[in-house]
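cache lookup: miss for this entity combination. No prior model stored, computing from scratch. Input as submitted by user K.M.:
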Amino acid sequence: MDLFIGMDLGGTNLKYALGTENGEIILKLSRPSFADQAQNKIFENMFTAVNELLAEAEKRGEKISAIGVGSPGSIDFEKGQLIGSTPNLKSWTKAPIKKNLEEHFNIPAWADNDANVMALAEARKGAGRGYKNILCLTLGTGIGGGIIIDNQVLRGAHYSAAEVGHIIIEYNGKKCNCGNRGCFEVYASAPAMVARYRKKLRRTGVAYAIDELNTKLIFKKAELNEDLAKETIYETCEYLGAGIASIANIIDPEVVVIGGGVANAGAEFIQCIENAVKQYSIKAITKHLKVVNAEMGNDAGIVGAILLAVESLKMVNSL
Amino acid sequence: MDLFIGMDLGGTNLKYALGTENGEIILKLSRPSFADQAQNKIFENMFTAVNELLAEAEKRGEKISAIGVGSPGSIDFEKGQLIGSTPNLKSWTKAPIKKNLEEHFNIPAWADNDANVMALAEARKGAGRGYKNILCLTLGTGIGGGIIIDNQVLRGAHYSAAEVGHIIIEYNGKKCNCGNRGCFEVYASAPAMVARYRKKLRRTGVAYAIDELNTKLIFKKAELNEDLAKETIYETCEYLGAGIASIANIIDPEVVVIGGGVANAGAEFIQCIENAVKQYSIKAITKHLKVVNAEMGNDAGIVGAILLAVESLKMVNSL
């Protein structure tokens, strides 16, 4: 049985795994990603990781057919290379991921944006199974996204599609880190939710230290029936609904898969988002639209990277 | 040479044409669409139109290979049938366009939403020639849209993609006809532009009768250097920029094609929109993005319908 390597490069860790053609993980490992070091150090670290997995495959008497990598940043999929820079890996600008891996190992390699890779994992093995048109959102410090159209990852003309966090939902609204105003993630990300709750608390005279407040605490308080927490969650769902409805009005998906830290808040939160999406979008689109929790959790990145390798190799071989 | 029939069904007229495999129009005709009559009357009218073109083809010693129809409303492309209703043709609910034409003429027929058909025309023969990822917008009473991804029309899971006029650009903003608030078209359609100008005029004590004001007049006044008109156009461009940027952030197109009555205002208006789009969107996406005028004008609908017939027939024959 031929095996595949999947790598999920993050700002903190490099996760890497040996997997099958079906995206099943055989062995899963992790090491620091050395994100603050020079580009060649990050590559050397990746080479070490691949060598470990090659040794493991050999021990099992198996061969590695292809390598897939999910990385932050916009990635030219044909070249497997970063187009610009990415904030959490300063030296990673224009990193030629595909080229360096292929030259070093003489094994076909592919690289794609991490959100696209995660969307691929949810589409094939997770909450998007059985659907052909999927919107995946990651709710965290920002709002990331991956889109599947007709079973294929939507990469866009400049490999920058699905910048969902920066659609404008409030014209001339609050400032965003991107330099614009009124972006979706300014109103519906985890920090936005925390800021909203803090503001409400202040009005009642309660003040939390910055690091004491997080979305987990807000959901906990809501469970305990605290009105301000419940209000905060409801308002966040409304903004999430408006943003997701806008995206749904454009791509008309069958299912919206919500992942990221905030998404584990439970079925009620997801239902609250679905209600808001249905309210804010065109009925023809959302009558049958489902909003669901992501299922792949922390494995989404490596499973998606394995599947990227599997599917890209199949496509090349079929040409 | 085999010929094709294209039909463009509107609220006022049914345009119909005989065309070649390359989308060239050989003969172009028009008749009232009888939009206020019963569904079978509208079909009978379409049958009469097809018969005229069949007679014309026979006179030329040619055969009709397929029929394409662009119609208002969401259309199940596989069935060639309206999914729900459409406001300007009251009896047109669930109209089985493909089935009725095929049964009546025994010629393969396809139907698609009129905005999709127009986008197809611009993509193959108009301002989108040579591009694979295209956003087409029609600025008029509302804002309509068609999207081409990787050379294919994006129809969506429920055949309702590209409802671009109803993305939300101002959360909890002005009321829209769709029932929601803050929709793109409430701020950037022709009536929105006229209302904005009227409001500015009122402040200066000038009042126009409702039917005296239109976008053409505003552009004329701007040409004559009237400040209020110039302001109105600039503000409209800003809203257009915000809405188009949101869509571009999601699908990452190479080109945005602007059609509809308002779009003929000239190169300066288009440049003003492009500037705003570049300001409001992610740089990676819009650095190379072009905003251009539609080129197909009033022929977009029939040329698109001819191409729909040509390409659908080719696809079926290649299966």
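stored under new cache key. The mean pLDDT of chain B is 95.
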